[in-house]
Each structure stands twice: as structure tokens, then as C-alpha cells.
Amino acid sequence: MRRKLLYALIALTATAAVTVPAIASASHSDAAKKHKISTKTGPRGPHGPRGPAGANGKPGATGAAGSNGTNGSLGGNGSSGTNGSAGSNGSAGSNGAAGASGVSFLRTVLVSPTANTQAANGALLVTAITGLTGVNAGNPVLVLVEPGVYDIGSTALSLPSHVDLQGSGQDTTTVIGEGSLTLNAAASTQIRYLTVSDTNGSGSATAISTGGGLLDVSANATGTSAATAVLANAPSMPIVNVTAAATTSAALSSAAAISTVNTVIVQGGSFTAQDGAVSGQAAALFAQNATSVNGATLQASGGSGAYPVFLGGTSQLVKIIASTLSGSGGLFVPTGDTLDIGGSEIPGVISGVTGTVHCPDDWLAAYSTTSTNCN
Questions:
Q1: Does residue 220 sit within a domain?
Q2: Tell me: the pLDDT tens digits for 200-215?
């Protein structure tokens, strides 16, 4: 457009140049006539300077929208937001299938020390035994006692026939009492794998009185006037591997580790009696009826007489084999009784022998020989 304007300006200038001479020549018409006027266009002059820019025209109409571009690549994951508050608990699910049956016993009663005191545990033991029903030779029962101390107080606990009382070991299961007797077992019973103690500060004390058998048991009795660790009252089974100790302290008292009332078989074990009073007596074995001892230790001390063997029956025979006997009182065998000792260590002292004694192959503590009459 600027170029067109320039061309128009040039043409106007050229026209003016022609017109002015034409006017001037009017007064000189005659001269003009004399000369012929040329109307031929001269050569194009040079471009003039560019004029100023014109005003912007009105904006044109908006064109149609272009097609959408392709999607850009996904941006990276933003940082995790804070945890929301916990939701409410859901409803309880249905019960699962029943588990397998636990261990059950048919003829065993389990006693556990679930109480807070020894006395309360003792009450549990008493209840378990006194509550037994229907027990007989065809339906015997085992009372199994877990490790613990069971104090039954001053009232003796009676073990019925055809009931065995079993602890968890002499070092872990203990039954204690504070009366004249702790445990009284009937015939056809066995007490095993536990310790029984009786302590009576105002009278006699007996740990176990049994008409049955004992196996791997410790029995301890401490009394003032008298003490008996084991009273074998017509036992129906042997006394096996029993550790028994009896102790007294009052004047004229007596201590017996084991006292045999009827025929008794003793296998192994250790039996110790001690009397702390000068006027008292102690006997490791106080045999009131026929008794057989094999592989045991019989030891007595204290008092006015300490006898490893003291016979107190009438016309009875006591046999001791492969055992160790010690006590300053020696052997006591009254008239009518017979004591046979074989293959054993004997004290070599005869304190009160009016009956019969035989020691054919025994020896003294220093392994010196002894006579056949035990001297």
C-alpha cells in the first residue's frame, strides 16, 4: 500500500510540473504556437522516503479451533498422604471347628498346686483323695501329684485300699503334716516318688504308717516324746529304696527310722535314728515281727542307747543281708528272738543279747574279722 501511495505522489508531482509551464505560456501564446509542446512521460524518478505506518486494521474473525494435541507423559507419584483414622471393628466371625480332644484319664486323678499357699494346696490333695468313690480291686485309682508342697495340717490323710499315691519325685513333691501322723495308707496301696514329713513340737510324730508298699520315698519324723519315720504295719508290698530319718529331743524319748509290726521286706534304702536326750533311745530298725533287710544302711546315734537293730518281738526271725550297721549300742536281741546277719558290716557290740545271733561272714568297720556270735 505504501508503494501505491508513493506512485500516486510521483504522478501528482509530474502533473504539476507540466501545468505550471502551461499557465506561464498562456501569456506567451504566440511563442507557444511557435514551439510544439511534448507530452511524453519522463523517466521514473527515485523512490521517495517511506511514509509512516498506517493504523492497524480491525482484528479478523477467530479461526476454527485446532485439533487436540497428543497426551503428555505421566508425571511422577506424589508423596504419600497421612494415614486416615482407624475404622470401627467389624463384627465377630463365626466360631471355628472344634479342636481335637485333650488328654483324659480314666483311673487317674491329677492334683496340681494351683492355690496360693501350701495349706491350700494340701486341702486340694485331701479333697482329691477323700472324694474318691467306687474304688476296689477291679477299679484301682492312681492319685498323681504335681511338683509342690502340700501341707495337710494336724489331721492325718488316709489313703484307701487300691489307691496309689504318686508324686513327681522326692525332691519336687512334698506332703507335710504337724500332728501325730501325716499319711496313713491301707493295705493294697503304694506310695512312691515323693517326700512325707511330720513335725510335732508337743508330742509324738510319725511320717508314714502303711499297710501297703513304699517305693523311692523319703520319710522324715521329728517329735518330742517319740518319732517314727516309717511304721510298717503289715505291709502287703516291699519297702523299696526308702530314705527314712527320725529325730527326738525330750527326756526318755525314743526314735525309730523304721518300725516293723508284721512281716516286712526291706530292699535298699537308708534308715537313720537320732535321739538328742541323754535318757532317750534310738533304733534304726525296730523289729517287732519277722523282717528281712537286704542292701540297706541302718544307723543310730545319741541317747542312752543307739541301736542299728533292736528286736522287740517274741520268737521272731530277723534276717539282714549285705547291709551296713552302725551304732554305739550295738545289737539288741531279747530271749526267744533270732537275728541272722550275713555279708554285712556290723558294729561288733552286743549290748543286750539273750536271744540268738548269727554272724558267719561279717566284718567290723575297720574290716577286722568278727566271731560268729557277732562280737
A1: yes
A2: 999 999 999 999 999 9
Structural domain of 282:
147-358
* Cα–Cα separations (whole angstroms), residue 156 to 6, 123, 222: 147, 12, 15
Q: How many angstroms separate the CA atoms of 125 and 323, rounded?
A: 36
Nearest CA to 286 among 248, 249, 322, 250? Answer: 248
Q: How far is CA 23 from CA 32, 45, 185, 336, in A?
A: 11, 24, 174, 201
**Number of structural domains in the chain:** 1
CA distances to 4, 72, 312, 334 from 355, rounded to whole Å, are 173, 124, 11, 5
Q: Is 157 a member of any domain?
A: yes
The CATH number for 309's domain is 2.160.20.10
Specify the length of the chain in residues. 375
Question: Residue 124: what are its φ and ψ, rounded to 5°?
Answer: -65, -40
Cα–Cα distance, 345 to 355 (Å, whole number): 20
DSSP-derived letter for residue 75 is P
Is there a contact between 246 and 256 (Cβ–Cβ < 8 Å)? Answer: yes
* CA torsion, ordered 266, 272, 275, 276, to nearest 10 deg: -170
Does 135 fall in a domain? no
pLDDT in tens, 74-89: 878 888 888 888 888 8
By three-state DSSP, how is residue 238 classified? coil
pTM comes to 0.73
CA distance 101 to 108: 17
C-alpha 344, offset from chain centre = 47
At 32 the three-state DSSP class reads: helix
Residue 66 in domain? no
Q: Return the residue matching grid coordinates 499357699.
A: 117
CA distance to 184, 243, 296, 332, per residue, from 276 (Å): 27, 20, 24, 20
249 by DSSP, 3-state: which?
Answer: coil
